[in-house]
Amino acid sequence: MRTAYHDLTKTGQWGDVFYMITGSIVALVTPMHADGSVAWDNLEQLIEFHIENGTAAIGAVGTTGESSTLDMKEHEEVIRFTVDKCKGRIPVIAGTGGNSTREAMHLTRAAKAAGADAALLVTPYYNKPTQEGLYQHYKYIAENVDIPQILYNVPGRTACDMQPETTLRLAEIPNIIGIKDATGDLERARYLIDNAPEGFAIYSGDDATAMELMLLGGHGDVSVTANVSPKAMASLCAAAIAGDRETATRLNDLLMPLHTNLFVEANPIPVKWALNLMGLIPEGIRLPLTPLSESMHDIVRKALMDSGVV
């Protein structure tokens, strides 16, 4: 399943037709040379790799794409480059979040100008806004930038947990079209799926529990594992969304070593090491992130072997 589009039914929108992206959405790494400069040729190679292997959409410059280590200009350049190289063959969801509402709005406008299909906005990190602050943050950006926007809740990184009630309030805003929930909390996922308005997408942001979320009625997985095993992740997501537990479980069991061991150190350290081992990207990563510890090499290598990647 490469891309699956479905007309949304939300009303009060600003004139354009929205589409729901379903399936395996890769949280794409930003490849870098040893000196830390962006490896543009390798980024293009990765884009083609995912198009050829059935990935439903590309998530550019999210956590896995080292949004925290790119400067503003580079961030915008990676989004623009990704959109240009995709050439409409696959949707691009641009990471545009920030802990400053003004900064997040600037990046979201840049994603709109670049032609991205949607924006993914992480909850503001470090400054710990209230639930009302979160609501006003997202509402302000949605009302000022006319691009479909996806919320992103990952409290393990941000020290900020957007509660389901806040998510459901935001789901009523026309161009807020979904959420990436990286809590791994399936009861929360079930609550959101059962209570969100029609056309509001619920994506997993936790590979280890993504299958169960999709079997509950979720719409896809914004995946780290898809970086190294895109075809299997695409098949897993397609099976789970279709309700085929048997096929989904078989594929999920195969990929579970990656779901777990690509996080033995902070993402994207292990997945960038894995892609380098596969010959797809150079070894570059930016401080304060460091290359995968030597003691972890065999663990990640074995996960790649056990999952049939190498």
Automatic annotation (TrEMBL):
It catalyses: L-aspartate 4-semialdehyde + pyruvate = (2S,4S)-4-hydroxy-2,3,4,5-tetrahydrodipicolinate + H2O + H(+). It comes from the Bacteria. GO terms for cellular component: cytosol. Pfam families: DHDPS (PF00701). Its main location: cytoplasm. InterPro entries: Aldolase_TIM, DapA, DapA-like, Schiff_base-form_aldolases_AS. PROSITE patterns: DHDPS_2. Keywords: Amino-acid biosynthesis, Cytoplasm, Diaminopimelate biosynthesis, Lyase, Lysine biosynthesis, Schiff base. Pyruvate binds at residues 64, 222. The keyword Lyase applies. GO terms for biological process: diaminopimelate biosynthetic process; lysine biosynthetic process via diaminopimelate. This is 4-hydroxy-tetrahydrodipicolinate synthase. The gene is dapA.
